[in-house]
Design a protein that fits this description.
About 20% of the residues lie in helices and about 30% in strands. The protein is α+β, with helices and mostly antiparallel strands. It folds into 2 domains: about 20-95, Alpha-Beta Plaits (2-Layer Sandwich), CATH 3.30.70.330; about 110-190, RRM (RNA recognition motif) domain (Alpha-Beta Plaits, 2-Layer Sandwich). The chain has a 6-stranded antiparallel sheet. Strands 8-9-7-11-10 form a 5-stranded antiparallel sheet.
């Protein structure tokens, strides 16, 4: 929090992303600080904490902040009582939306992503390589383009053991049909595309889809 300006919190209070008493305040004037923010919103109820976000390098205000009330009912009072003006500038208080928890990157799995496959490589080729070198393969899948009907140069292989997957991915590069390919642990789609952007174009393709 060094780069941000914060008003002293009430003793025993603490900030949480999902606090129902928290509002986001946008459109702040460059000169507005946490004390001014607290002074303005204190008329709506007791305040636990005020925060003005600042650039970590320049220390200039990023023109938005957060206010956390003791009573969540104060949030509704603020939202319903606009318009709001602070330091001769219209501001825009809204209910703060909690951050979605970041999906966890999987470290133990029986499924691998295989990228860089040659156009001639088939699922049988993929299965044969890993089965002959690392043991039984329970599933093998190439990802195909729905328009061209050709595979997109990557696929997924599911093996019998997480330890075998660790070994394969530690080696990372393998040669299938005289083409060097790359292996990584397959990750769920939401890990690789948490906002749903670029679906199917990343290194891990469609994940578990």
């Amino acid at each position: 929090m060094d780069a941000n300006e914060i008003s002293p919190p009430v003793a025993g209070s603490h900030d949480t992303n999902g606090d129902p008493g928290k509002i986001f305040v946008g459109g702040l004037c460059k000169i507005t600080n946490a004390d001014r923010l607290k002074e303005y919103f204190s008329k709506y109820g007791e305040i636990k904490e005020c925060l003005v976000m600042r650039d970590p390098v320049t220390k200039n205000s990023r023109c938005f902040g957060f206010v956390t009330f003791q009573d969540p009912a104060s949030v509704e009072d603020v939202v319903n009582s606009g318009p709001h003006t602070l330091d001769d500038q219209a501001i825009d208080p809204k209910v703060a939306i909690p951050k979605r928890p970041q999906p966890k990157f999987i470290t133990k799995t029986k499924k691998i992503f295989v990228g860089g496959l040659s156009p001639e490589t088939t699922e049988d080729d993929l299965r044969s390589y890993f089965q002959n070198n690392y043991g039984k393969v329970s599933q093998c899948l190439l990802m195909f383009d729905t328009t061209t009907k050709r595979h997109r140069g990557f696929g997924f292989v599911t093996l019998e053991s997480e330890d075998i997957v660790d070994k394969i991915c530690d080696e990372r590069f393998h040669k299938i049909n005289d083409k060097r390919v790359e292996t990584k642990k397959a990750q769920p789609r939401e890990v690789m595309n948490p906002q749903g952007r670029g679906r199917g174009r990343g290194m891990f393709g469609r994940g578990y889809g």
